[in-house]
Write a structure and sequence with these properties.
The structure is a homodimer. Chain A is α/β, with parallel strands linked by helices and about 350 residues long. In chain A, about 35% of the residues lie in helices and about 15% in strands. Chain A is built from ten helices and 13 strands. In chain A, strands 2-8-7-6-5 form a five-stranded mixed sheet. Chain A has a four-stranded antiparallel sheet with strand order 9-10-13-12. In chain A, strand 5 (about 145-150), helix 5 and strand 6 form a beta-alpha-beta unit. Chain A is globular and about 60 Å long. The interface between A and B is large, with 89 and 89 residues. Chains A, B: This is Histidinol-phosphate aminotransferase. Chains A, B: It catalyses: L-histidinol phosphate + 2-oxoglutarate = 3-(imidazol-4-yl)-2-oxopropyl phosphate + L-glutamate. Chains A, B: InterPro entries: Aminotrans_II_pyridoxalP_BS, Aminotransferase_I/II_large, HisP_aminotrans, HistidinolP_aminotransfase, PyrdxlP-dep_Trfase, PyrdxlP-dep_Trfase_major, PyrdxlP-dep_Trfase_small.
Chain lengths: ~350, ~350
């Protein structure tokens, strides 16, 4: 090791799902939306004048912040935007989690929470989900330096009812509570309606899933003005201009078309319900999902074998070789025809694996 | 103060230059390029298929990394990209500056260095520039946890000769040395040619100035593969997908047109030299600038008065009310006609201020 290596921050980075490229691939592994963004997004991108790009973008991201505020009926001083919800969440960790007491989050959850805490040297404690993969609200009544969980949870898809979130907030008035709603639009209830009553609540959402714009990197937080001010102070201390011109314009355009948004969500929810039914018929079980994925295990076939067999056929799902969940696959909901192709591969694969075992 | 406020990170954020909007404004305050990006950039943006945006971008930013590697004759494993050079530099601070010994940078320099160090709780020591606003290489021979400086320096515009950079590297083999070359294309010599000999050197550049793309947020670092690997590990621990689809495509397009790039640089350099001559005739003095701005003081007129007088006329320059530089204005080089308008306002303003004093 060279001398200069000893003070380098060594990290075990989060491993994102594979991003295979190719024509005959079905990507059901990173929870992307199978439908394109609202038509207005392409129009907005085509209308961007390249001349404008010589200038810095608006550091306050006003056009986008205003569109979000209007969409959700909050003040513009209640909205913070970032380069995907990962950027927003990382800024939240940096801004709000500075106690010596541990930050609490579930043991099975978005794996980035642990990565951020490690990287930022934030103490944390992972609270086990119950046997049904649910968060138990009574577990969040211990001393802590902040709380974060996704709702619905990832990669389980399980929704925590709003009454439980309210209970957690009521029992934690002295720390910041972050509800990460990356998947909330697919059928769960948003904690946004609790904002008026809890000044220490932050709701984080993203354009990557329900708005079909993972490729644009747009996330946002909605909270009380005082929290948004603190977040902006940290953001301006890190990188004043995080969102480029195209993100601001495309994000705004997506929000203007609520009809398209609802239509896409209805299609994905319908496909999800059909997918659940078929999976059940094939011997899979899963917690009820309110997201755009199903987290399923088969009664006899090992998840890793299914993952590999699907991949050989060009169908990518997500497999986590981690405690408690190593027998599960996270299957993103694609279009109906993508799910038909998925089942056309999965059925004979399950048959083959069953025969091998017998 | 609410209880939950006590563990919030409080920062004094960097204050970026004003971003006034309006038709009759001449912006010479944030060192943007007065010319539009290469024509290929607009074309690349128009060709982006909105359908593609539903997918996450390539986390490795390959199309852009390859174009940068090819442009500078380095390996793709020697290139790291980020959301503007601020993002790249902040990641560098986080990755490389983890010693208990102080990081060294000049007392007059890019003010973000101090902001990042404060936010990340990195100890640092500011080394005074000499009377001519030059970095003295012998000042960088003390115990330290890393070194960073811009070349040319900001906001002075002064170039540090390559021999001095080499001397600093030779005397600091055990720490990471970052040369921030945001303005290098406007006539200074790049430290890129030292890369083969110093594995602990990082060169950071940006598309915001010489490539007219501040609005797209693209920066990059070029270094030895081992340093780039460490940077990527930290980046993947923070936000795997920082650069959106449009940045990757537009950035690549800009690099393909080297002829346009050189033409724009030649125009700006010619305008800068004309501007220097006129400023001198009017009683201004300034260190020789190798950047796209001039850092000038007037022999009698107070900088703050000049700043305010120009602003009233719709001409924005940058004024820093800081020790040692409170009598200087940083004037970005615009087009010839913008500089003509600038002088048309500045000349009578200087006259008026002189008369007042007399």
């Amino acid at each position: 090791m060279r001398n200069w290596e000893k003070n380098i921050r060594k990290t075990v980075p989060y491993v994102p799902g594979e991003q295979p490229r190719g024509e005959h691939i079905i990507k059901l592994n990173t929870n992307e939306n199978p439908y394109p963004p609202a038509p207005g997004v392409e129009k907005a991108l085509k209308e961007i004048s390249a001349k404008r790009l010589r200038l810095y973008p608006d550091p306050a991201c006003s056009v986008l912040v205003e569109a979000i505020a209007q969409t959700y009926g909050v003040g513009t001083d209640q909205v913070f935007t970032g380069v995907g919800s990962d950027d927003v969440l990382a800024m939240c960790f940096m801004t709000f989690f500075n106690d010596t007491k541990p930050v609490l989050f579930p043991d099975i959850t978005y794996s980035f929470y642990e990565v951020w805490a490690d990287m930022l040297r934030i103490p944390y404690e992972k609270i086990p989900l119950d046997e049904q993969f649910s968060i138990r609200r009574e577990d969040y009544r211990r001393a802590n330096g902040g709380i974060i969980f996704p709702n619905p949870n990832a990669p389980t898809g399980v929704e925590l009812p709003l009454a439980d979130i309210e209970d957690i907030l009521r029992n934690n008035p002295d720390v910041i509570v972050i509800v990460d709603e990356a998947y909330v639009d697919f059928g769960a209830e948003s904690a946004l309606k609790l904002l008026n009553r809890f000044e220490n609540l932050i709701v984080v959402q993203t354009f990557s899933k329900s708005r079909s714009m993972a490729g644009m990197r747009i996330g946002y937080a909605i909270a009380s003005p005082v929290l948004i001010k603190y977040l902006n102070d940290v953001k301006y201390s890190f990188n004043s201009y995080t969102m480029n011109e195209t993100s601001l314009a495309a994000g705004r355009a997506a929000l203007l078309d609520q009809a398209y948004f609802k239509e896409v969500l209805a299609k994905i929810i319908a496909t999800r319900e059909r997918t659940k039914k078929k999976l059940k018929e094939m011997g899979f079980s899963f917690p009820d999902s309110r997201s755009n994925f199903v987290f399923a295990r088969h009664e006899t076939c090992p998840a890793e074998k299914l993952f590999e067999g699907l991949k050989e056929a060009g169908i990518y799902v997500r497999y986590f070789n981690s405690p408690r969940i190593s027998e599960y696959l996270r299957i993103t909901i694609g279009t109906d025809s993508e799910m038909d192709e998925f089942f056309a591969v999965l059925k004979p694969l399950v048959q083959r694996l069953k025969q091998k075992e017998a």
